[in-house]
Amino acid sequence: MSVPRISKDDLKLRLDDAAGDAPVIVDARLKYPYEHSTMTLPGALRVAPESIAASLGDGTLPRDRQIVVYDSDPDDMVSERIVAQLLARGYRAVVLQGGIADWAAAKFPTDSKPAPQPASPPGAQKG
Fold it and tell me: Which domains are delineated in the chain?
C-alpha cells in the first residue's frame, strides 16, 4: 500500500515551527501495545484502529489540518491502513514513518500516558 509518509525529523520540525497550524497527531496503536506503553507523542489523540470509522463523522479529526498517524508496528501497517481510509474520505493524512519507536529512539519529546486505573472489585463501594 502506498500512502504518504513523514519522517520523525520532518514532523519534529513541523511541531516546533507550527504556530496554529500544527498537524493533529493520532495514536493508532493496537490495544495491547497501547495499554502496555507509558508514553505517547506530545498532544496525541488516542483513536483505536477499530474506532477510526466512528471518529470520521464525530468531528474528532479535523479536515482543515494535516493528520499524522502512528502505531507501534515496525512496518507501519496499522497506520497505513488508517491513512488510506482517511485519504479516501478527503482528509490530509500521512504515516509517521517508524512510528513511536523511531520517535522515542531519537529522544524526541514524549508525553507520559496516565496509568490505567485498577478496576474496583465486584461489590466494592465507591467513595
Answer: 5-109 (3.40.250.10)
